[in-house]
């Protein structure tokens, strides 16, 4: 009746303390407010806002269905923001009108003073909450006694966002409030994020220590109500290129505390500012990419399986074939997930951190779950592929063919007969032991230095400061002041930064070793081939039943078991081209081959190999069983004679031809011709026999290391722990590969394991 503004403000405050209840009771403060609101339409509205009645506080936006989405999404905020510029467009200028409980207007307050943050902190860290693009999170426990001391009288706030119009005039934009403690909160929870069910309000308070008091206002209140969770959400307009946002939304939740012992009681409070954008389009693009690459991975795995069937000499599709296809597909699908996650991480890293006018915002932690799932899938599948690779390398068939022939004869006593007869001079086994040890050493040689890789990644992340790029703020600086606010980590950015560093450092290492180190210092793979030739020993490898590799090490000098003078003379003759070339074919230098052997050749090899495999003897050097030793020696000589005669084309029924691989065969990694009558030796200038070593599988090892590092980091949020565990797993698997590979080498070649050092 009297339009008393202060009294109406006081009534509004009582309604806010009652959680904006929409009770129809006229005795309720909110019911009385609604009654007055309806019956004072003749007084008009304020600033053309239909919900703001003249001489009344603005408490509600209205309860019409769909009104919340209109308020929050119908119009964008009439200014633009950037990450780099003046204070006006890099900061959110929040301002609040404050009232006391009696309805008296107190003052305008800038939120940079930290008036909404109940947790104590430095001024610079409190002000960082309103730097545009910086995700801000603050939480702490605050004692009830401090709350009662600092907030004896409740203060009520109407929140606005300040901006400049085109004419330079300052304007205020009202910020809506979503109170989770409304009587409609149950509906809100049931309908989840359905914006149409939200009932938006305007006024709020931080602490209510007044309404919980009984008759004597001087005593402590029985109950206090504390704003335990305050969150300001900033949403980017879709497809914007100029940093346009929708109106901000404040979400607030209150906790009622029964006051018993204020000195010992405490309340957990939090304040956050979150930035988000519609990620549905990015998710659709990711799903499309996953579908396309996943389909290509199926085709590639089918080709691998077909090549594997050809190499095993089998044409029947059985359970083993299906399992092999699944293993191939696991590895290829891991690569698909890896490509998608690395691409996604680097995309967000580059486009979020490098932008000036804001066009993208980082996904929220809840929106990162699919990304983390992709990384977990990639790691699990890559681990399966890595274990399968390890098993296949530990079960290869290998034999060292010794081309050395006896030089002259020696007199030898015949045991039991007491007579002396002449016999061929024995050929030294030390050259074979030497080659076996060299092979044993190169089994775990890689194209990069794993220890340097881990230390370099850790150095750039923690010392140089690349880890700061993973913070959810707008800064692209590598350094942060200890006094400045440190934003929370983004899991996508952490993966993007660490994966990019891993790949970049590994790429530089591979270039360095392949272009400089292996050319001018030491190339262990090529040196092994040269050593085989100087030792007069060839290497016959079978990675599949009917496929493998051959290193032709037959000496062009006829003998390698010689003295130093003759060895130097041989090297000099070879340097001056006074002898034939090293290649398997006359007048060629080709020493390494991929071999596809016939089924008949494989069966003959297996018959000899059955007697070649012997039981492991005791640890003492001379305690081997005489019978077992004689059988093993006989089997070794038989295998050596058979393979050397096979290379010399002695067995016409098991002959071979030498040819070049077609370009398509090289690309697909398979052979089109089936070795039915004759085996096929394919010229190989790329030393692909390293495929049975770590060296030829660097891509698989590197991706496995990156994913292992990332999984540990995502779980622990610690790059240091991830680096330590990654190096430990590298050493553990290297030890397993060396130990079991050494046992397989001794088993397949008859080289006594006690001579492998």
Output the structural class.
alpha+beta
| Low-confidence segments | 183-192, 614-624
Using only C-alpha atoms, the radius of gyration works out to 39 Å
Mean pLDDT: 87
Find the count of extended strands (DSSP E, 2+ residues). Answer: 22
The share of residues in helices is 40-55%
Biggest sheet architecture: 7 strands, mixed
Count of domain modules: 2
The total count of helices amounts to: 20
Straight-line N-to-C gap: 103 Å
Quick gist of this model?
The chain crosses the membrane at residues 326-351, 451-472, 492-516, 701-728. This protein has 757 residues and is an alpha+beta fold.
Account of the 3D structure:
This protein is α+β, with helices and mostly antiparallel strands and 757 residues long. It folds into two domains: 60-276, no CATH class; 396-613 and 630-756, no CATH class. Helix content is 42%, strand content 17%. The chain has 20 helices and 22 strands. Strands 5, 8, 9, 11, 12, 13 and 14 form a seven-stranded mixed beta sheet that branches. A six-stranded mixed beta sheet has the order 15-18-19-20-22-21, with helices on both faces. Strand 3 and strand 4 form a beta hairpin. Helix 8 (280-312) packs antiparallel against helix 9 (319-353), helix 9 packs across helix 13 and helix 13 (491-521) packs antiparallel against helix 19 (698-716). The radius of gyration is 39 Å and the shape is elongated. The model is unreliable at 183-192 and 614-624 (pLDDT under 50). The chain crosses the membrane at residues 326-351, 451-472, 492-516, 701-728. This is MKS3 protein. Keywords: Membrane, Transmembrane, Transmembrane helix.
